[in-house]
Amino acid sequence: MSKLLFEDESYAIIGVCIEIHKKIGTGFKEAVYTEILQKELTKRNIPFQKDKKLQLYYDGVALSKHCIADFVCYNKIIIQIKSVNFIKEEAIHQTVNYLKATNFKLGLLVNFGESSLKWKRLINTAVPI
Fold this sequence. Notes:
Layout: H1 7-24, H2 30-43, E1 48-58, E2 61-73, E3 77-82, H3 89-102, E4 106-111, E5 118-123
Parallel strand pairs: 3-4
Antiparallel strand pairs: 1-2, 2-3, 4-5
Helix pairs in contact: 1-2
């Protein structure tokens, strides 16, 4: 059986998110979950950068525009935080586009807005693993 891409790292991140959701539940704005996630990642010594400005590329050439990821953990996983009733396709497409345009391999789209935490692991299939 093959291992998931960045399995240990992504489990650690999702575990933190589950813990946050269990403690405070749903109903807060993204900014609240973002602040708490920042505190919890720090407490657990998970390396991260918040509101990380990412270089965009097109056909291998750097663009003058950038995107901002909510978090980049371990210098290799993009985390996008949502607090909505359900994850919309546009949020999935945005995260996938961030992966493709930045050459990151893995993105986690995490939604605190549902009765139980929902997340999606999104893989950039354009980058060799």
